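Treating backbone geometry as a discrete language has practical consequences that deserve illustration. The sequence in question and its structure tokens are set out directly beneath this paragraph.
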Amino acid sequence: MAIWERGFASIYDKMNAAMEAGFMGRRRSALVGPLTGRVLEIGSGTGANLAHYEMADRVICTEPSGPMRERLAPRAEAAKVPIEVYDCAAEALPFDDASFDVAVSTLVLCTVDDVTRTLEQIRRVLKPGAQLVFIEHGGGADGKRGRWQHRIEPIWTRVGCGCRLTRDTRANLEEAGYDVIEFEQFSPRRTPPVLLPFNQGVAVP
């Protein structure tokens, strides 16, 4: 698994290059660019969000994968705002209660081992009334696509280092006690159908 994890990290940016140059890059910029204060970003991966932060006082990134953190490091150094990177899982955040002004999750909730525990931890470290902003994928597909995603998910999860195709972002948030105050589901053109639909929104614990 460690060998595949390193290999996956090495090709991750190449796999997503077209999305990042198109709709995903634009959406990341709109999502995190205006954020202010102390920001928690879970599962930062190779750091695709970091160039898009413009106004945050400080961004605290968590990423449990060593190979991903290696690729994140130069982007953290080049960011316009101060970045700190922690080696920890989203299910066990080593931060004080009510210590963040906003939390960010982009293409992460599909990969965590325990999505309920992750959302509980985010709720714990957010200040009262603070928001979780997100872009996620999967869940909500019906008909032929939904059946196909359920069939291939066990293999996909192993190949994709934990990525689940059928997690329902909105349902997970609501079950964890969040109010989803903004929600958009979209299916970009020229995107692998297995990843669709995408979900973007804002939730408040």
